[in-house]
Amino acid sequence: MKVEIEKDLNTLKRLLCDSDDVTFKTFETSMGKSAVAYIDGFVDKQSLYFAVLKCLYDAPLSVPVYEKLCRLPIPESVDMFEDLNEVLSKVLSGNIVLLIDGAEGYFCMSLKKTSMRAISEPPTESVIRGPREGFIEDYKTNITLLRRRIKNGNLIVSETTVGKQTNTSVAVCYIKGIADEKVVEEVKMRISKIKIDGVPDSYYIEQYLSESKYSLFNQVGISEKPDVISAKLLEGRVAVIVDGSPSVLTVPFLLFESVQDSYDYYSNDWRASLIRIFRIIGMVLTIFLPAVYVAMETYHSHLLPLKFLISLLGATSGIPFPPQIEMLLVLLLFEILNQASIRMPRFLGISLSIVGAIVLGETAVKAGLISSPAVLIIALSSIGIFCVPLQLNSVSTLRVLFVCVASVTGLYGVIIGAIITVGYLVSINCYGSPFTAPFAPVVTPDLGDGFLKAENFNQTTRPFSIPNTNRRRK
User: Is residue 379 part of a domain?
Assistant: First the structure.
């Protein structure tokens, strides 16, 4: 088909609804009437003039149009399309389309202006030792950060778009020869079935990748650190990068990954093992400590040591609320303070902490509305909740549920609830991997990276808990 400048420009304007931020420029060159179309703000106009337009003016007539464009000193290659709908998609993605009257197709090129957040340490994952680079909101940059760490042709990046209105770019990354092809195809199939208007963040993709849509527990790994994602790819996992989000997703995901941290692999084995045990203790205290306190004070006070019971009775005498209501009240107070501190400007965060922890807490205790043991229990529980940030929402929910159960049935209900929770976790299967592996079922080769971590040089095989096609790591 031949390009007709006036007709095609009018069609593009109609498809773009005459939006004011779309620029159309018509000009004359040695090849005849020409035009460019692009979205203002995406394009480096100085490069557009010097790299494209000036070269078109100076190019000899004997050279074919496509060859002239391919010789241009621009960062990316020039593509030619015959379908105007494909051209529209390129313009909306920030590319320039060049129309030349009588040409055999439309020419698209990229001269994007670089205006993005600089690569820095991710705010959600503090770094004690190790690389301090973090992913940003540009998915091309994120893919480059992975390429810098895995310089191997077997690192495959499969790109697609999701979202009827947003056309968000999504990249599925894996290492050929290590990742299981069935897992890769399953991830691609689930992404291809997503039919929504837009994808503002990777969480929208995470929901579709989860095995159990309504589960309390996260079933998809998430990280903002390239070294963490690279290590997971080398183990046989599949990573999903979403344009506009610094959080990269990985599957399959195991529950015990919530306890692991990148610092574990940059420190001694005994230190990493000790820290992991502390994290597990913190998670257990977060879930069960408030519930056990309520159960013991309400139904099983005879199990407490006499001196401790006397101190507890002295601290709780005069409190107008029963232990169940008191504990739920303190939980509500701490959750409100937590949400307020997250959403307030940073420079007001310290003031809020002082007001919440000292003024409100101490005043409420002195006024006799709540007891000091209840404040202490919730404070310990709230500190432990951040030991496993990947399961923060699920742990917070379980804490409230167990307090409600303990209020009605005491320790018996807490024990039964814990058994039901463990049974539910064991039943979850994530892309062919048991969610609670390597402990249920027991996968002996993977126990070296469990509660007690072996040195890196002793971990000679990739995890048996997840599907992969090459078990030998070393």
Answer: yes
What is the number of domains present in the chain? Answer: 3
- Pair (305, 229) in one structural domain: no
Do 197 and 86 fall within a single domain? no
Q: Report yes or no on 433 lying in a domain.
A: no
Task: Based on the fold, state whether residues 313 and 286 are members of the same structural domain.
Answer: yes
The whole-number pLDDT of residue 241 equals 93
**Residue at 38 is within a domain:** yes
Residue numbers of the domain that contains 99:
5-109
Mark which of 93, 109, 125 sits at the end of a domain: 109
Asked if 13 and 24 count as a contact pair (C-beta separation under 8 A), the reply is: yes
In this predicted structure, what is the pLDDT of residue 118? 75
Q: Are residues 275 and 411 in the same domain?
A: yes
| pLDDT, greater one: 15 or 421 | 421
Residue 65 has pLDDT above 80, yes or no: no
Q: Which of 263-272, 331-340, 353-362 has the lowest mean pLDDT?
A: 353-362
- Identify which of 419, 374, 414 has the alpha carbon closest to the alpha carbon of residue 292: 414
Which pLDDT score is estimated for 73? Answer: 57
- Residue 12, pLDDT > 70, answer yes
The total of other beta-carbon atoms located within 10 Å of residue 314's CB is 10
* Residues 160 and 288 reside in one and the same domain: no
Per the omega criterion (within 30 degrees of 0), is the bond before 434 cis? no
Asked if 102 and 203 sit in the same domain, the reply is: no
This prediction's pTM: 0.80
